[in-house]
Structure formats: C-alpha cells, structure tokens
Amino acid sequence: MKLLKQSIGEEAVVPLMTPLIDIFLLIIFFLLTCTFASGEKEKELTIHLPATKGGSRGVEGMRWYFNVMETGAVVLQGRTVTLKEVDGLLEAEHERRDGIYLIVRAHENVPYRMVAKLMGLFSRHGFARVAFQTIDEKE
Questions:
Q1: What confidence tier does 53 reach under pLDDT thresholds 50, 70, 90?
Q2: 11-20, 39-48, 70-79: which has the highest mean pLDDT?
Q3: Environment class of residue 4 by beta-carbon count within 10 Å: exposed (0-12), middle (13-18) or buried (19+)?
Q4: Where exactly are the structural domains of the chain?
Q5: Are strands 51-52 and 100-106 parallel, antiparallel or unpaired?
Q6: Model-level pTM?
Q7: pLDDT tens digits for range 90-125
Q8: Which of 53, 58, 96, 130 is the most buried (most CB within 10 A)?
Q9: Do 42 and 67 meet the contact criterion of CB atoms below 8 Å apart?
Q10: Nearest Cα to Cα of residue 67 among 49, 84, 54
C-alpha cells in the first residue's frame, strides 16, 4: 500500500482509501449478484432425479415443489402429505391457479402411476403450469 507524504517535510502516514473502497465495492457486488436460497426445505431431501438432455428454464411466480420419494410418499413444503391432502390444497388454491407453478421432482425409481395420480389432481383442478425437474444427462 502506498503512503502519502506531507509536503512540508514531516512524514505523516496516511493510508490510501482507494483499495479499501474497492474491496467494499466488490463485497457489495457479490452480495447483490449471488442467488439466495428460496427457503425451500425440499432441496435438503435426497431424491435421485432422472437424467435428461435439454435445457431447463426458470419460472417466475409462486412455486410448489411436489417431491415423490422412492417409497411413493409425497412431500410438499417439508412435510409428507397424502393425495387426499394434496386434493384439498389444490381445491383451496383453485382461484389463484394461474399464479402457481407446480414442480414435480420424482425419484428415478418411482412408478409412473404415482406421478400420474398427481398429474390427474393437477388437471382436475385446472392447474396447467406444471413442470418436471430433472438433472442434466452427462454425455
């Protein structure tokens, strides 16, 4: 770090503030550009998603993550729910269905009938914004 000298002849130690300002600007930049966790506890669950080729696009709006575990249990917002409870939740949110995205994350070994039952509930209540989350397939 360079030090400024007084012109009178006395040497005064005055640190330059520019490097410190640069550091603070970098910290602010990284804080503003990093992605924060959306607070969903479902990501902590261990689900082996199937691999697919193709891109994934993010969705805007409220997201409900339906995690179908290997055992067939459905986990929504950190708690295990039955299909009857899912039916009740979808019925209660029927009016706001256009602003809600339903994202299904099913274990790769889950039978298709479990996912089909969820899809039937979504369709019955008029939810059209449904996505399936997978991982990228490595070539």
A1: low
A2: 70-79
A3: exposed
A4: 3-33, 41-136
A5: unpaired
A6: 0.56
A7: 888 877 777 788 888 888 888 888 889 999 998 888
A8: 130
A9: yes
A10: 49
DSSP per-residue string spanning 59-111 = --SEEEEEEE-TTS-EEETTEEE-HHHHHHHHHHTGGGGGGEEEEEEE-TTS-
CA separation for the pair 89, 66 (Å, rounded): 12
59: tokens are 């969705």
Tokens 């400024």 correspond to what residue?
Answer: 4
Tokens of 8: 């009178």
| Joined tokens for residue 39 | 């607070």
Locate 54 and state its tokens.
């193709």
16: how many CB neighbours lie within 10 A of its CB?
11
The pair of structure tokens assigned to 31 is 């804080």
Q: d(Cα 55, Cα 107) in Å, to the nearest integer?
A: 19
Q: Is domain 41-136 in CATH 3.40.630.30, yes or no? A: no
